């Protein structure tokens, strides 16, 4: 299974991670694999930020700098790192123990690591499956405990818990002022902010099968399209906001 792909800005190389324990580097011009890095552990998430590639492993996050060649292991997580995101200059890792680990970049040239563990965000009771960064410096986390938690990226404190699903929250995306969440309970929820400052479900789309992931983009006419992958081996495309 391929668990993540990353295309760093300005690079002609595509990076992919897999539970076969490797990160592969592909030449975007030829489509050929030009390098394979054997990590000896399942790669369960992969992202890029600037010149850095981050891979979620068991009990750690591995980081490479494609400009300097730096290779760093970030310890701290307990169990498999299932989700990664980067926001407010903080690297965030959702782990199997239900905790989100937060590292901030360390500019001290004498420091042992370019990243410093600055916080552990506890609140979920089961593994954290997905992370999304929204406006107003908000982090959203989805878990196998069926909940979505909202965190303030300035204070790194939980401000809200959303209970709108009856199974694992599999994917989260922020689109303008909306939060979209998918779940193994076969639904996609659209959340909107109320006058009281809380989030409520404004619309629910029900699928025949569990929903694995969401992705949003605009088509050639700049119309917003939601891609929804389901357990029946299909990817469904929806025109928003209809």
Automatic annotation (TrEMBL):
<feature type="domain" description="IP5PC-F beta-propeller">
    <location>
        <begin position="81"/>
        <end position="190"/>
    </location>
</feature>
<dbReference type="InterPro" id="IPR044715">
    <property type="entry name" value="WDR86-like"/>
</dbReference>
<protein>
    <recommendedName>
        <fullName>IP5PC-F beta-propeller domain-containing protein</fullName>
    </recommendedName>
</protein>
<keyword id="KW-0677">Repeat</keyword>
<feature type="repeat" description="WD">
    <location>
        <begin position="121"/>
        <end position="161"/>
    </location>
</feature>
<feature type="repeat" description="WD">
    <location>
        <begin position="162"/>
        <end position="191"/>
    </location>
</feature>
<dbReference type="InterPro" id="IPR056454">
    <property type="entry name" value="Beta-prop_IP5PC_F"/>
</dbReference>
<keyword id="KW-0853">WD repeat</keyword>
<dbReference type="InterPro" id="IPR001680">
    <property type="entry name" value="WD40_rpt"/>
</dbReference>
<dbReference type="InterPro" id="IPR019775">
    <property type="entry name" value="WD40_repeat_CS"/>
</dbReference>
<dbReference type="Pfam" id="PF00400">
    <property type="entry name" value="WD40"/>
</dbReference>
<dbReference type="InterPro" id="IPR036322">
    <property type="entry name" value="WD40_repeat_dom_sf"/>
</dbReference>
<dbReference type="Pfam" id="PF23754">
    <property type="entry name" value="Beta-prop_IP5PC_F"/>
</dbReference>
<feature type="repeat" description="WD">
    <location>
        <begin position="1"/>
        <end position="36"/>
    </location>
</feature>
<dbReference type="InterPro" id="IPR015943">
    <property type="entry name" value="WD40/YVTN_repeat-like_dom_sf"/>
</dbReference>
<dbReference type="InterPro" id="IPR020472">
    <property type="entry name" value="WD40_PAC1"/>
</dbReference>
């Amino acid at each position: 299974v391929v668990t993540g792909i990353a295309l760093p800005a300005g690079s002609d190389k595509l990076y992919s991670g897999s539970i076969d324990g490797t990160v592969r580097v592909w030449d975007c011009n030829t489509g050929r694999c030009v390098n394979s890095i054997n990590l000896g552990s399942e790669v369960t998430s992969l992202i890029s930020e600037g010149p850095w590639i981050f891979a979620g492993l068991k009990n750690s996050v591995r980081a490479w700098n494609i400009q300097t060649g730096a290779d760093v292991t970030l310890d701290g997580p307990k169990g498999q790192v299932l989700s990664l995101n980067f926001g407010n200059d903080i690297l965030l890792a959702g782990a199997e123990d239900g905790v989100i680990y937060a590292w901030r970049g360390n500019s001290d040239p004498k420091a042992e690591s370019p990243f410093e563990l600055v916080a552990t965000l506890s609140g979920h009771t089961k593994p954290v499956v997905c992370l999304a960064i929204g406006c107003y410096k908000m982090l959203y986390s989805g878990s196998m405990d069926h909940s979505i938690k909202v965190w303030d990226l300035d204070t790194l404190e939980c401000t809200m818990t959303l209970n709108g699903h009856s199974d694992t929250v599999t994917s989260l995306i922020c689109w303008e002022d909306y939060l979209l969440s998918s779940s193994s309970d076969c639904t996609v929820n659209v959340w909107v902010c109320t006058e009281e400052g809380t989030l409520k479900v404004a619309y629910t789309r029900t699928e025949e099968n569990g929903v694995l992931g969401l992705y949003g983009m605009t088509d050639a006419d700049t119309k917003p399209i939601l891609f929804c992958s389901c357990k029946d081996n299909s990817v469904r495309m929806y025109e928003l906001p209809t």
